[in-house]
Amino acid sequence: MATLAGAQTTTYAGANVWRAVLEWLTTVDHKKIGIMYLWAAGAFGLVGMAFSLVMRTELAQTGTIISAETYNSIFTMHGSVMIFLFLLPIGAAFMNYSMPLQIGALDMAFPRINALSFWIFLFGGALLALSFAVEGGTASAGWTAYPPITLDTGNNAEPPGAGMDMWLVGVILLGQASIFGSVNFLVTIFKMRAPGMTMWRLPLFTWTTLVTGLLILLSTPVLAAALVLGFIDRNGAEGAFFDPAAGGQPLLWQNLFWFYSHPAVYIMILPAMGIVSDVFGVFTRRPIFGYRSMVLALVAIGLLGFIVWAHHMFTTGGVFLPFFMGATFLIAVPTGVKMFNWIATMWRGSNIFPTAMLFSVGFLMLFLIGGITGVFHAAVPVDFALHDTYFVVGHFHYTMSIAATFGFLAGCYYWFPKMFGKFMNEGLGKLHFWLLFIGVNLIFFTQLLLGLDGMPRRINDYVANPGWELMNMLTTIGAFVSAAGMMVFLYNVFYSLKWGERAGADPWEGTTLEWATTSPPPPHNFDSLPEIRSERPLFDLRFGERLQDDPHYHVNNGHSDPKGGGGSQPSASAREEG
Amino acid sequence: MAASAVPHKRVHPVRNFLVGDEPMTTGLWGIIFFIFSEVMFFAGLIAAMLALHSDTLLWEPTNGAHRLEGGELRPLLFTALLVSTSIPMQFAAFAIRKGNRRAMLINMSIVLVIGVAFIINQYFEWEHAGFSISDGPYAASFYTLTGFHGAHVIGGLLFIFAQWLRGLLGHFDAKRNTAIEAATLYWHFVGFVWLLVIFPLVFFLS
Amino acid sequence: MNLARLALLAVAGACALAWAPSTLHAHDGRYAESGDLLTALGVWSVDAPGLALVLVVGGLYAWGYYRLRRDSPNFKFPRWHAWSFGAGWLCMLIGLMSPVDTYSDDLFWVHMIQHVLITMLVAPLMLLGAPATLALRAASPRVRATYLVPVLNSRLVQTLTYPPVTLVIFIASVWSWHWPNAYDAAIANEAVHFVEHGIFLFGAALLWWLVIGVDATRLRPHHVWRCAVLVVAILQNIGLGLILINVNDALYETYAIAAAVREWGPTALIDQRIGAGIMWVPGSMMFALAIILTVYYWAEREGFKDRRNDAVRNMQLRVHGELDTLGPRPGER
Description:
The structure holds 3 protein chains of 3 kinds. Chain B is an all-alpha fold. Helices cover about 70% and strands about 0% of the residues of chain B. The longest helix of chain B is centred in the last third of the chain and has 33 residues, at about 135-170. Residues about 20-30 of chain C have low confidence and may be disordered.
């Protein structure tokens, strides 16, 4: 356990480079696929950030630098790339890499389908990227792609061209990759757990993987249906589905789209929440507060996420308002449970603050602002006033974009030693954190204020207005500060890969199973596993004997009632483990 | 692995899908989750069609053609044929559970032949529909739903054909038959979607 | 033989119930006069079959509970079972006789509240009262041996409680009754209405029986499967609610007429949308709550199982020393 595995650190010299490349291209190892997801999603994320810088430069002052068409194209691709090519796959990256390690599995249940899913994702991403090269440019209808803007109705000055079709097909492919991935995650969690790793001993990140997988499985096919209809609408059906002039219904698209895209918000944020929970479990040196309530809150968030999608359509007049308002408010309850649990974990913990922990605390702060502004939006009257303003932009960036990104960055810093056997540089990491934290708050808090001031979103120019000009400038400055932070991060990654300090198998004194193997792990993950008696097997391994005499310490986390209230059945399912 | 101290109770084979008495194989878990996603896909398409039907002034094909001008008998017949193939497919699964590969292959051949006949019939349905995909919401829904269902039938047939070939090579026995079980479940899904959902909607909403 | 006799009895009972309301129905609920809440609260509709049903159900349970306490005081039958059944019984009373029933002939959304009460509260609360356990325990040995056990073990009950069959029955019962013709018929004829509620209660009871699992069924689904059943139930609920909320004309003739006749209350379309919203959101919430509770009890059970397996494992370790700790390999069955 203590030594590095030699097989993993083989260096490929000269002529062996091609063999190494071929090995990566044909790999079915979940760790390598996870790392490839990480690089690909990271690269797409930088591209998305570059788009945002273009937009912010345009909006820094009144007057235009780029044309409205280019601006439309850029903000569409910013949203699409960030959501479909960065936030969703980077979650998949960590799920691929860490989840099998956390449950003590030797690989995914279907390793080849796992590889297939990655290559489909890459192909879909390439399709989106290539749409810059075609006649008429990329899709430019926003990432929500509301018809009839996406259609050639004869009324729009510049009907969307082949780029729109490529966008539709590309996102179908990305969705298919997600579906294959989620099937794989679910089966892996249900079937591949190590002996003793029962469902209620799963690390919280694995639980989020499970719930996320279910969300993907239920919602993504509906998006695929919507995209398929959109594609047929543009090619052959002549607007019969979504163009009112031809008998279609634009609201139908919105319903189908948000049926996916509301749960998608949770698909993006839940893995980040899982990472943060694991990080808190390690760096507070305490078990996570309320493990079981965390899981139940997770399930509740996932369920409620399916009922409330119509709150994105309050102003369309096509939804019945009071119920969705009430149901949306309800989501704040399980989210609040999680917030309090994280805070309670830190409360009187022996907290230490390496960069991963800093990002987790940052996640809490950003998610708190995002969550509270979300409750604003759930109230119908407020939503009517703020719909389509920068307040919305600020809100959803705070939650699903920035908070999620902070969670994933925490994951990067946390699992980097496991992936590459080296620490990331702490000094650069802290610089990265502070630049990014100040930068994003500068961007999005001013955007919240701009929204309250009534500035509409999706515009490339605005009237000269004293408040708006100042705050837009501040936002742009924030964007560049954040970009500088990300550059520091990029430098840190390469610096640490080359000169980073060696990390042992368990550099953080972790509690979950991924730290029970070498860093990086051997291809088969584990040579042996410790006995698993709780959701913190490594903690038990380290302190179990010492603590066994302590009356306050319960290996099973103190579930005292052996009867179980639910079913009065003494069941045979103990045999499942066999 | 730790051998369980509790002896296994013999359970009825059907139950292992729904009770934790006998663990399901990874393949079965996988196909069940995958079918669930397919169900959601068709639910999306069908919800779209119902929504369009409930609220549009331009539902009927704009060129005035009617779907069932060619008579109802043939579509009904082929619906019955497709759905009834669930029975030989299930028999194939039952046969291989008992280790009878020959019976499995015969049953699967029946499924393959009828499935191909169904696809050919669908081709003629499209030929003689009397309207094209651009003739309004009904026409577009008709082609979309039958088209995607047809694609899934073809996919299912390829899946079954692959397993049929493997069976010819002697691949399955009473213990190792997950692929047959998976193909059976998938085929039930294809028939179910057609019988309960697409056939009544597509053929009687016009 | 016994089964046949029982089935005959059930059919006869159903016929009697279907016939009874047309003669015994005491209140004519068509077009309530006032939309005023206080007035509305006073309009109760006590009809004979409903009253009979409520009294019989409540009486049977109370009688069984009394016998259980008298004959086997040591049998562990927690008091919350009885409380829960009582709560369900109260919901049944409210659903069948209160102004909710009176106004359900005029307002679609009130009728939807009635259905939600029946399917989402009456059924689960009564089943949490463990009626089958109580019946088995309280019945005389002869009744138990000749009626209860054969019925509970019969092929019919086994089929009905097979999860896919249960789901299909539940979904079919809900969707078929929302077909406009069926719905209008139910409001027009009290007997049909009574049968409608009976079928709702039956379908919901089957579903909740599986999910709650307080009473034994022959086939006890694992908690994960219970959650899966509930997820499907939520999805179909959302689907039907979505259809009803998006339809742009009043589907149900009776309510369209009622809305045209009365001088208060919402228009037929708004009425329909409120009803659909009630079905969609509070209806789905109940299922969501059930899923969360199921997951919680799953955790409870797993905790118990975990400790037992750990004990077995520790024993094996003591006997055999180190064992292979690695789990299933990929591709393994």
